[in-house]
Specification:
The structure is a single chain. The protein is of the alpha/beta class. Helix 14 links the parallel strand 13 (369-372) and strand 14. It is built from 39 helices and 23 strands. The N and C termini lie close together (9 Å). 49% of the residues lie in helices and 12% in strands. The longest helix has 31 residues, at 896-926.
């Protein structure tokens, strides 16, 4: 119930924000501009004072903002104004405490006849810059349902202004995180708005950089006013509420992390960026917010610089956004040095041309002016320029340069005039490569400016055990900040890997092939054997069959593969054989991009695959770059490589890595993590191990483990967590077998009949969980040495059983929602429009109609869901009419004509529900937004035994409400003694109704009134 999440999470969260210095705005004082929810009575005088302007000028500024919030730019123009360092300030970032900080609850975001009300809205200087949505613990679907709702709202162009003005979102069901889940379900998450998909982020505090702000003590009178304003004074002394007020609940912890004033200032100034991208030929923007490791790394860099450490390493795992981290630090360090009257010049150092192009693009898309250095002479000239900015627009700059440009001419720049306080900052990308102290490039880099700050970025630092004579720490200093695989996996930024050894019979076949080649060729090197057509042919057959099976099992033809070959010759031979089988492969990306997207594979299809060969001496750079981009966009199925793309290559759809050779040390970890990027809802990346990398991995794993042990002592679990362990897999498969023991798993029809008799949803959910786990683990059945895998059933069959079980659950939920009179919320809380369209077959000619139908169904469902009086006879009638529409025929038989007819009926229900909600809102307002008394008033007016005018009834009930609330405020145990509470209320009812308002009462009528009031309070107390 609503009371539950309000009292368990929302009210304690509001109270906690008040401890952090936010002033609460009562419900009846929400005097704002309805179009954008800005509070002019706060905004206008505050902006006038901050900027020394008149209130008329502040009003004109407000008018301009209102127009800018209509732009289809995800609020980019508004954000630029919000964080501007010149002109009229909307926020005083220099003296952040000078701003006004407010919070309020249930602030309606309304447009036309649609609306939503965030649980808590956070305002700075009257601008609603953040909101918080909370759910009770263990709620169905965790926070996923809230994300679905916010995605739907922000896609709605009518809500554009609210999306554009909002900077920070928090979603919490007040539970601890369940680590390693790609889809965040339990916990407290933060995000920034998007027009498409809002991306949830975990937040974990860093003990080295804690929140400094002290929390205020809240006066009991202030707390009472908050509870009374929300008509929840009844919960004040309940043990649950007292527990949830504590500062260390999951919700309150993330509020401290994000809304303490020092953190909120940092987030608004430095943690948000607009990323430009082209969508169907048009420029569009994505809005990104710092991940928490990026935030703490940024703080760490400034802290270490302040301590005098001018070089160090950021050890963040692959996929953690190191290029984005460099961008954020250009912003942050520019201000850091400005306070010291120093002008920074930023350089991003790469060691490959493709990375130079990629980094330049990423920086430019984030709004930096990028200067690419194309020759040694250009770089020398750049070093000699004394200014930090080379463009007329004043946009912050970064120079992206290949380390090979650091020639001997670019050293010992003693003739530079340092009086103007120029500070060079070098970000070194992939700092585990190309930085040999015995080579010229690193020496030239260091000597180019001995006073430069050097920030080395790597996911796999170079260890002394590998390089023998040096390591990353010797070259670049100690670690500034560290973020490892275990945390990245826990946070859902990267996936765990499953290593698949090849099947035993295939090993035997390949051994025979190698023996045959040796007989034919005589003494021949292993490398040549692996590149021989007799070896390559069965290898290619295995890879293509495996990829097709993988896609078929997952019912996803977008999944891609990468083959890391033993040699360039083997790569060429495999690609040549591929072309013999599938035809000459296209290298013109424009033709590839025009191809139809791959369809789902049927069980007997023989799909035509596509591939590209990526070698340094194949095709030219432009063609290779275009082929790689085409692969990323899903138009090429397989890539054959040797040394290229093993590092710095990100393609989320790449989920199968075929390793045909052993790769050593940090290069091995770099290569393995090509398949660990989150994609859709996949839990794992898969590595098919032809070369048996286990020894190399164990060796590499131990080296990094030892390095972290030196840094962290016993805190470490890390790289051993990268692969799912044998023990974990054995245990999970045994659990699956136990769960499936009582079911017929070989005959799909019998299985369907068995689960059709299953009405226990807990048992059905247990069965579905087992089958889903089996689906995830099916690709490891060939792994040698896993005894628990012996005799396991066909995973194809198990996958079909999962579909049957899921359909049964959907049907149970749907029937239960429609048929259960007492639980109408089941019908209204379920996204009917999504479930129904799993059944309805819609062709292209009906798509527009189908969208309209889904929209009116959603609006109808939500309008009924928002009704707080679900015993109202009119509400019951409308809900029954909604049920009748979906009971009258089989959903799979719904036709276009049915949709037209139902749309008319749904529109009628929606209009009536909307009107009922309007009347209910009037009643609620009469009782200071207390839903309890609005319901009591309605029930009493529906009964003919009460002879009273509505004005009399209102006066009597308001007097009862005020006296009960005062009594509850001061008497802790009143609600625990139901009999006493009932007698106390009976006296009040007689006093206010009969004596003060002269309403004639007999005993049955008095009992009816008393029971209605008592039950409302008890229900609120019991479901607090």
């Amino acid at each position: 119930m609503k009371f539950n999440e309000d009292s368990r999470v929302k009210i304690p969260a509001i109270l906690h924000l008040m401890r952090l210095g936010y002033k609460y705005i009562p419900l009846n004082e929400q005097n704002r501009i309805v179009d954008n929810n800005i509070f002019p009575s706060i905004f206008i005088p505050k902006i006038a004072v901050l900027n020394g302007i008149s209130e008329q000028e502040a009003q004109r500024l407000l008018d301009e903002i209102n127009l800018e919030l209509d732009y289809e730019d995800l609020g980019k123009k508004f954000y630029e104004r919000l964080t501007a360092t010149s002109g009229i300030k909307l926020i005083d970032f220099e003296k952040f405490d000078n701003n006004d900080f407010h919070i309020t609850t249930e602030l309606t975001c309304k447009t036309g006849d649609e609306e939503f009300r965030p649980d808590i809205t956070v305002l700075i200087n009257g601008m609603p810059l953040a909101f918080i949505e909370v759910k009770k613990p263990h709620n169905k679907e965790g926070v996923i349902a809230e994300r679905t709702r916010i995605n739907t709202r922000f896609r709605n162009k009518h809500f554009r202004r609210f999306a554009n003005i909002t900077q920070l979102l928090v979603f919490s069901n007040n539970m601890e995180y369940e680590d390693g889940i790609v889809e965040p379900i339990f916990g407290a998450f933060y995000a920034t708005p998007a027009y498409d998909q809002v991306h949830f982020n975990y937040f974990r505090e860093d003990v080295d950089y804690p929140v400094i702000q002290k929390q205020k003590e809240i006066d009991e009178k202030v707390e009472n006013e908050l509870l009374k304003d929300n008509n929840l004074i009844v919960i004040k002394n309940s043990p649950e509420y007292i527990t949830n007020k504590q500062t260390n609940t999951p919700t309150n912890r993330i509020l401290t992390s994000l809304f303490s004033k020092e953190r909120l200032k940092f987030i608004l100034q430095y943690a948000i960026v607009y990323v430009e991208e082209e969508v169907t030929g048009k420029i569009a923007y994505q809005k990104h917010i710092m991940r928490y490791p990026q935030l703490f790394a940024t703080k760490a860099i400034a802290s270490k610089l302040e301590e005098g450490q001018n070089k160090g390493i950021i050890w963040h795992t692959q996929g953690s956004g190191k290029t984005a981290l460099a961008y954020y630090n250009v912003k942050h360090l520019t201000d850091y040095y400005a306070k010291k009257q120093v002008i920074p010049k930023f350089y991003f150092i790469v060691d490959r041309l493709d990375l130079l192009i990629q980094a330049s693009s990423e920086f430019a898309n984030r709004g930096l002016k990028v200067k690419q250095v194309n020759s040694k002479q250009d770089f020398i000239a750049d070093l000699k320029v004394v200014g930090a900015i080379h463009n007329d627009s004043g946009v912050p700059e970064i120079t992206v340069v290949n380390i090979q440009k650091f020639s001997e001419d670019a050293i010992g720049m003693s003739n530079i005039n340092y009086d103007i306080n120029i500070q060079r900052v070098y970000f070194l990308d992939e700092a585990h490569r190309s930085y040999n102290p015995k080579g010229n490039y690193l020496a030239n880099l260091i000597n180019s400016d001995r006073s430069a700050v050097i920030i080395a970025l790597t996911g796999t630092p170079l260890l002394k055990e590998v390089a023998k004579e040096y390591d990353s720490k010797m070259l670049f200093g100690n670690y500034f900040h560290k973020y490892y695989y275990n945390m990245s996996i826990a946070d859902g930024y990267t996936l765990r890997l499953i290593r698949e050894q090849i099947e035993g019979n295939f090993k035997m076949e390949m051994k025979e092939v190698m023996d045959q080649i040796k007989v034919l060729q005589g003494d021949i090197s292993t490398r040549k054997i692996y590149a021989h057509s007799k070896f390559a042919e069965p290898l290619l057959k295995y890879i293509t069959n495996d990829l097709i099976k993988f896609r078929r099992d997952q019912q996803d033809a977008s999944l891609g593969g990468l083959v890391v070959c033993d040699s360039a010759d083997q790569a060429k031979e495999l690609f040549s054989l591929f072309q013999e089988k599938y035809g000459i492969q296209e290298t013109d990306s424009s033709i590839l991009m025009a191809a139809e997207p791959p369809a789902k594979y049927g069980n007997h299809d023989d799909p035509i695959l596509t591939a590209a060969l990526i070698l340094h001496d194949e095709n030219d750079k432009t063609i290779r770059k275009e082929l790689i981009n085409t692969y990323k966009k899903g138009k090429v199925d397989l890539l054959f490589v040797y040394n290229m793309l093993l590092t710095g290559f990100d393609a989320k759809r790449l989920k199968k890595l075929y390793l045909a050779r052993v790769i050593q040390d940090h290069n091995l970890l770099q290569t393995l993590t090509r398949v660990n990027r989150p994609y859709k809802k996949y839990q794992y990346g898969f590595v098919v191990d032809f070369a048996d990398i286990s020894k190399a991995f164990d060796r590499t794993n131990k080296m990094y483990f030892d390095e972290l042990q030196e840094q962290l002592g016993d805190e470490m679990e890390m790289y051993s967590y990268l692969f799912k362990s044998e023990e974990e897999i054995q245990q999970e498969i045994q659990e699956i077998k136990e769960t499936l023991f009582h079911y017929e798993t070989q005959n799909r029809e019998l299985f369907s009949q068995q689960i059709a008799q299953l009405t226990d949803k807990k048992e059905l959910l247990r069965l579905i969980k087992a089958l889903r786990t089996a689906k995830e683990l099916k690709n490891i059945i060939a792994v040698n040495g896993y005894e628990a895998l012996d005799g396991i059933a066909d995973f194809d069959i198990w996958n079909r059983l999962l579909l049957e079980a899921q359909n049964r659950l959907d049907n149970l939920n749907f029937v239960e929602s429609i048929g259960n009179e007492e639980a109408s919320t089941n019908l209204l809380n379920t996204a009917l429009e999504d479930i129904i369209f799993q059944f309805i077959k819609v062709d292209e000619s009906e798509l527009v109609l189908a969208d309209e139908f889904k929209n009116i169904l959603r609006k109808t469902r939500e309008s009924l869901q928002n009704n707080f009086d679900q015993f109202d006879p009119q509400f019951v009638s409308l809900r029954e009419e909604l049920e009748r529409i979906f009971k009258k025929k089989n959903l799979s038989e719904v036709t276009q004509a049915d949709m037209v007819e139902n749309m008319h009926l749904l529109q009628k229900i929606y209009d009536q529900a909307k009107e009922l909600n309007r009347k209910n809102a009037l009643f609620k307002a009469k009782y200071e937004n207390d839903e309890k008394y609005a319901r009591i008033h309605k029930r009493l007016t529906e009964k003919t035994t009460l002879n009273a005018k509505e004005t009399q009834l209102h006066k009597a009930l308001m007097q009862v409400k005020q006296q009960v609330d005062i009594k509850l405020e001061g008497q802790e145990d009143l609600m625990k003694n139901e009999a006493f509470f009932k007698r106390y209320l009976l006296q009040l009812v007689v006093q206010e109704f009969k004596k003060n308002e002269n309403i004639p009462l007999d005993f049955p009528t008095t009992e009816t009134i008393n029971n209605l009031i008592v039950n409302e309070y008890l229900q609120q107390y019991q479901y607090r």
